Amino acid sequence: MILALVAVLTACEAQEQKSRPQDNEAIQFALSMGIGWNLGNQMDAHYGGCSYEEGWGNKAATQQTFNGVAKAGYKSVRIPVTWMGHIGPAPTYTIEKAWIDRVAELVEMAHKAGLIVIINIHHDGYGAETDAVKKGYFWLDLPGAVASEEKNTQIKQELTMVWLQIGKRFANFGDWLVFETLNEIQDGGWGNGNNKTDGGAQYRVLNEWNQVCVNAIRAAGGQNETRYIGVPGYVASPDLTIDNMVLPEDVVENRLMVAVHSYDPWDYAGSAKYNEWGHTGKDVVPGQGEDSYVAMLNRLYNMYVRRGIPVYFGEFGAVRRATKEDEEFRLYYFRYICKAMRERKIAALYWDNGNSKTGEDGFGVINHSTGKYIGNGEQAVRAMVDSWENTDPAYTLKAVYESAPESSRK
């Protein structure tokens, strides 16, 4: 009798665990993406209204690139793709065969290395580059779509045709390939532009665009009917996504993922105006340490993950520092945020632009052509990956917090 009762209780506990939304198949898939890597400033590089694989200084990626990424411990790779300059005129908007074939070649290389792969529409959106905006290079013109319904209709038609073509090209690729509808769509103000004063007009149009993309992907048939799709909010900001994004309606359940980016705080992680981060630092962005980062992750978890909707950071990172002490704070930043993400079942892909310098824009950790580490890239990768994967019960976020380096600054 006691054994039977134990069996019943065990079965009930197993069923309860299985039924928890934050443990569903979609969340588990996001977890399998783990800590990933971006082939940044590569297929997304562009100038003069066209994208070029080697346009921003990185040599062409090879099978060794992705083998090196997998060997480093990354579980997924995001291949940002800018399509402008390779799309024909209306009404078919035919994508240049050589360009989409090269994308497919890279996707297959990454899959051969055992990586989950994400591809998207990247720098085709309205940007802060004044000349390019004036010349109309960015066909995903959000301000234009807000001002003119005719323009909005035309853009939605182009989005439909582009995603139908991408979907059909990859229709037979398994669910290890993820489509991400868009990138950091905005008006050039990086979240502090007219979106703050237009009564939500830009947010509404972006929600329409995401819905159009999802519809087109599903309509492309094959594996696309159930493929995981990443959906970003305005400028991929966690807060603006939570507050303003309407997750698209979908014909299948639990196959949409929320895609966000974070280089928080930018004055530390991106511009390197400050060189330390966290409660033990002295040269820090005021009020932007562990508590603020965890608060942002908690908002994402409570809004999405706990309801069974996966979240991943399509981009995160921090630039290399010039001194060993400052690098220790960078490594601590990676350990802390990656552990905090793991505890909330949020995957994250490091932004690697191939740049080996220190200071602003120095995000490179792996050579984009050879797959070998750049400088002290191995230390940075180990800090991210090992923190995410460490399942020792003693390795808690509190333990990471208590391991923070000490500053020698006065």
Question: Could you characterize the architecture of this molecule?
Answer:
With 410 residues, the protein is an alpha/beta fold. It has one domain (30-402): Alpha-Beta Barrel (TIM Barrel), CATH 3.20.20. It contains 14 helices and ten strands. The strands form two sheets. Strands 1-4-5-6-7-8-9-10 form an eight-stranded parallel beta barrel, surrounded by six helices. The longest helix is centred in the middle third of the chain and has 21 residues, at 149-169. The chain is globular.
User: Structurally, how many domains make up the residues?
Assistant: 1
Taking all Cα atoms into account, the compactness measure Rg is 21 Å
Order of helices and strands: HHEEEHEHEHHHEHEHEHHEHEHH
- The CATH architecture can be given as Alpha-Beta Barrel
CATH topology: TIM Barrel
Total E-strand runs: 10
For CATH, the homologous superfamily is named as: Glycosidases
Structure annotation, total helices: 14
**Overall morphology:** globular
Oligomerization: single chain
Instruction: Characterize the main sheet.
Output: 8 strands, parallel, barrel
Give the CATH level 1 class.
Alpha Beta
Helix/strand-derived class?
alpha/beta
N- and C-termini, Cα separation: 69 Å
> Strands of the largest sheet, in order across it?
1-4-5-6-7-8-9-10
Query: What share of residues are in beta strands?
Result: 5-15%
